[in-house]
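Thread title: Can someone regenerate the structure for this chain?

I was given the following input by a collaborator and told the matching structure tokens would be attached. They weren't. Posting the sequence so someone can regenerate them.
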Amino acid sequence: MAEKINPETSTAKSAPQYAKAGVTNADVEKMLGMSTAWMGALSDMGAEVMSFVAERIKEDVKTQHKVLHCKNMAELQHVQSEFLQKAMDQYQAETGKLMDMSTKAFNKPADSKS
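Best answer:
Regenerated them for you:
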């Protein structure tokens, strides 16, 4: 059964619930700051991924156009080979970029405002 709280004797009015656990206002402010910074970093990373996907779709369309204009198998193999090499290079570069972004986000001090 739930315990009834007497508003006149309760300390809830004078001290927030987290203060009872030894958490200070400064601690809460740091946690909120980290949350804001992390959400900003996640937003930036999401935008980066979307930009990358859009660029890859453009490459797919260009490659399809080249494939449709191939005159022989050797030309087709060359177009496919170029496509795969460029895709691997771009995915590798994007992975590095996202790793850098995530490293910076998680190494950012909690009290920084940037």
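Residues 46-100 form one domain.
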